[in-house]
Amino acid sequence: MAAVAAGAVLLYGIVTFNRLVALRTRVDNGWSQIDVQLRRRYDLIPNLVETVRGYAAHERELFERVAEARARAIDARGVAHQAQAEDQVTRGVRRLLAVAEAYPELRASAQFLALQEELTATESKIAYARQFYNDQVMRLNTLIGSFPSSLVARLFGFAPRDFFDIEEPVRGPVGVDL
Amino acid sequence: MYEQIAANRRRSVLLIAGAVLLLAAVGWAVGAWLGSGPAGLVAATIVAGLMAVGSYRYGDRVVLASARAREVSPEEEPRLHNIVEGLAIAAGIPKPRVYVIPERAPNAFATGRDPAHASVAVTRGLLETMNRVELEGVVAHELAHVVDRDVLVGTIVATLVGAVVLLSELFLRASLWGGSGGRRRGGEPLALLAIPFLLLAPLAAQVVRFAVSRQREFLADAQGALLTRYPPGLASALRKIAGARDVPMRASHAATAHLWLSQPSRFEGERTGWLERLFSTHPPIEERIRRLEEM
User: Fold this and answer.
1) Is B86–A128 a contact, with Cβ atoms under 8 angstroms apart?
2) Is B3 a catalytic residue?
3) How far off is chain B from A122, nearest CA to CA, in Å?
4) Which chain B residues contact residue A136 at CB under 8 A?
């Protein structure tokens, strides 16, 4: 009887441990997906700035702020800091694209259109990667937080992860701080 | 939304179980009629199993070729490739291969035995009529089929149904030719029931097959909406597709109807009668839109 109970506990421990490991791998995988897309965006921004500069040279202050935001985001460490820095980059890119709207020739140029598609697509890939990452973090944190899997998690030192949160632009009017 | 997904899954499992039971019943009926061992059943099952493995491994190539789908590069179709890649990231699967079909009717399908061997094909008409949000809704629906391994489910169901049909027909033919009648055990009333049952079994099997297909469509709608987090995208796309229902598709035939996003039309007009619904691979498009709007 005791042997059966011990066996059941051991089996539960093994299954839970494997689920924890699988989820942790998915979280890491999700994070690297975000990272790939963020890097893609870092690469696209200088191109966009150069393209817009050709038509709207006087927006120098905006160009500098975008470049600064990009540099800060590249240097950011940790999920929370990264999310905050990327928020600024996103606003900068949106602002650049909005400025471009005022220049019909720029808006019609093939180079700009291709950049716009690339940036829009990268933005949505970042959003999707974030969604996948946050889903996996939620599942991992739920497993770590709920009983009795929390015992297994504590025994093997599984820690909850941070969500990749950014301020949703729909929450209110976006401050023009760029 | 999560409840819809769970309920759809349960119904699919029940339907597959129903198909298995039907096959078992047919096997029993044949055995009861012949009064002999299950040799015929075993042979038919092995043949059906081999055919299933073949279609599971090579089916995607056949299907893509029969739809005259052509693989496109990211340079040719940047928007489509970007959408597929983004949603693959959201679903946590490798990016599928991307195909375009030269057809005016807006439609799409996904194939491939697992997420690592998946392909998504859309028609030229779909690319031309849909905006980005709608295209995302459609591609998300197709990727949901990939994530759910619907090709596997479809293969299992088609095999079971095929085995039922094959067995019933073989047996009915054999008994009509009169060979086995004499070997029937006299005085067993159950054996008399076997003949009408074997006549009806193929029909029942097809009904189960179509029911599975319809359930998987609802499931993919719900899961696709979960991927994009925006059910109105697919709803709007389905509305456009419903509007273009009269555009016929040349590259489709009954054998591949269940694969497509919406059932390809071969003739004009609405299909609403209960008998037609029983033999449809897809739920009515209005019903799908209604469920998406409720999410």
Assistant:
1) yes
2) no
3) 8
4) 92
In which element (H, E) is residue A26 found?
helix A2-53
Confidence of residue A113 (pLDDT cuts 50, 70, 90): confident
The string of DSSP codes covering B185-245 is: PTT-HHHHHHHHHHHHHHHHHHHHHHHHHHHHHHHHHHHHHHHHT-HHHHHHHHHHHHHTT
Q: Is B6 helix (H, G, I), strand (E, B) or coil?
A: helix
Radius of gyration of chain B (CA): 21
Residue type, B273: G
- B75, B81, B82, B89: which to substitute to probe chain A, counting the most A Cβ within 10 Å? B89
> Cβ contact (<8 Å) for A131 and B229?
yes
Query: B260 φ, ψ to 5°?
Result: -75, 160
pLDDT averages per 10-residue partition of chain B, 295 residues: 63 70 72 62 65 71 84 92 92 92 90 85 93 93 87 72 74 62 50 72 78 84 89 90 76 65 60 65 84 85
Q: Contact A71/A121 with Cβ under 8 angstroms? A: no
